[in-house]
Automatic annotation (TrEMBL):
This is Choice-of-anchor I domain-containing protein. It holds the Pfam family choice_anch_I. InterPro entries: Choice_anch_I, Haem_d1_sf, Mesenchyme-surface_protein, WD40/YVTN_repeat-like_dom_sf. Signal peptide: none annotated. Residues 4-266 form the Choice-of-anchor I domain. Transmembrane segments: none annotated. Coiled coil: none annotated.
Length: 401
């Protein structure tokens, strides 16, 4: 990739092009993936004309494939409350043809399958850039959830609804005064959105027909065996108790369940209560917040078996389960799960969505996979790999056979 952190990708409906965010470069790249032996960048689109401090956090593609929708932060910090933007890019001319003003510090975007609603997580994490840290206890700007509704699916004519998020009456959440929506998934029938609030260890459910938050539930804690020491020896013999703190989220193929990638975000001793951050696993929930399955330490164990487990991360989130996606290919439904610190994609069979069956893993071409996406109409998953070297960012593709 030309530059910037490759974090999120989205494909056009014909499966021939891929849009990839390059966060710190303030741009997206449009990549030709028609021939996997000849993948090449068609155009890199910069948004610095919209904001000198543009940072692209997420991207999707309109249902008709004519437009890319890119979410931009514009330099917000703990002291600078700059509004985010949704930029609509014509994928023929590669020009920005429409912008919508968003809340402060937007993160993820998802477009409903019917193309009528874009749901955006307004995180507003209030980061102190100089110290590279967030003072959660003293945060003053709560995040929200925004819906941009497109009449007839026309992304050039959108109506914005902002949904304030209140955690005041949600028992068991972290930092209830500062809700921080993180990642968005939308049900296959386009009626419901689910949004992780990672730092708060919660999930919000939104009715897209009424445009209302219908429920928010805390996720609680997990307990299982783990490696908690950076000692050069990988052994899963200690008890981990941790808040799930999911990043990525996806609906099951039937829309009845939610799958979460329980990465963790807060510091490992944030509350000095012995409870760590990050479940180090995936979990399945019903839409009322009842946990139906979790993989316990399966992902750490699986990456260790092939020499990919990062022992230096044992005290802090382990293999770090960043994101996931659910897709049905040739009549079979799979979950593809990105492990950021083990540099791998793990695959699960979802024939029984409340009892995923582990199939195996594939190392990524680059380091630190952030986003995992199933290419429309193809038996193909793509991971966007952030990489530790800021000059080197990559995509990796995986065929399902």
């Amino acid at each position: 990739m030309p530059g910037g952190k490759a974090e999120i990708s989205a494909s056009t409906p014909d499966g021939q092009r891929l849009l990839v965010t390059e966060a710190d470069n303030g741009s997206i790249s449009v990549v030709d993936i028609a021939d996997l032996n000849n993948i090449h960048v068609l155009r890199t689109i910069s948004f610095h004309e919209l904001s000198a401090k543009a940072e692209v956090t997420s991207v999707t593609v309109s249902k008709d494939g004519k437009y890319g929708l890119a979410v931009l932060r514009t330099g917000d910090t703990d002291t600078e409350a700059s509004q985010g933007l949704l930029a609509v890019v014509d994928l023929t001319t590669y020009k920005t043809v429409k912008t919508y003003e968003l809340g402060i510090g937007p993160d993820s975007i998802a477009l409903s399958p019917d193309g009528l609603h874009a749901v955006i997580a307004i995180e507003d994490e209030e980061i102190n850039k100089a110290a590279d840290e967030i003072d959660y206890a003293n945060a003053k700007r709560p995040g929200s959830i925004m819906i941009v509704s497109f009449e007839g699916g026309n992304v050039l004519e959108g109506e914005i609804t902002n949904l304030p998020v209140s955690l005041d009456h949600v028992a068991g959440v972290s930092y209830p005064h500062d809700p921080q929506p993180e990642y968005v998934a939308i049900s296959p029938d386009s009626k419901t959105a689910a949004i992780t609030l990672q730092e708060n260890n919660a999930v919000a459910i939104v009715d897209l027909q009424t445009k209302q938050i219908t429920s928010i539930f805390a996720l609680g804690t997990t307990s299982h065996l783990a490696d908690l020491k950076d000692d050069g020896v990988v052994k899963f013999t200690e008890k981990l108790t941790a808040r799930y703190e999911p990043d990525g989220i996806a609906f099951s193929a039937d829309g009845k369940y939610l799958l979460t990638a329980n990465e963790g975000d807060l510091g490992k001793n944030e509350f000095d209560d012995g409870v760590k951050a990050g479940g180090r696993n995936i979990a399945v929930w019903d839409l009322q917040g009842k946990r139906l399955y979790e993989s316990e330490n399966l992902i750490d164990e699986a990456t260790a078996q092939v020499g990919l487990y990062p022992d230096d991360r044992s005290p802090n989130k382990g293999s770090e389960v960043e994101n996931l996606t659910v897709a049905t290919i040739k009549g079979k439904t799979y979950a593809a799960v990105a492990s950021e610190r083990a540099d791998a994609i793990l695959f699960f069979d979802l024939a029984d969505p409340v009892n995923p069956a582990y199939l195996g893993l594939i190392p990524t071409a680059g380091e630190s996979p952030e986003g995992i996406h199933r290419v429309h109409g193809r038996d193909l998953f793509v991971s966007a790999d952030e990489n530790k070297d800021a000059r080197d960012h990559s995509l990796a593709s995986f065929h399902m056979t």
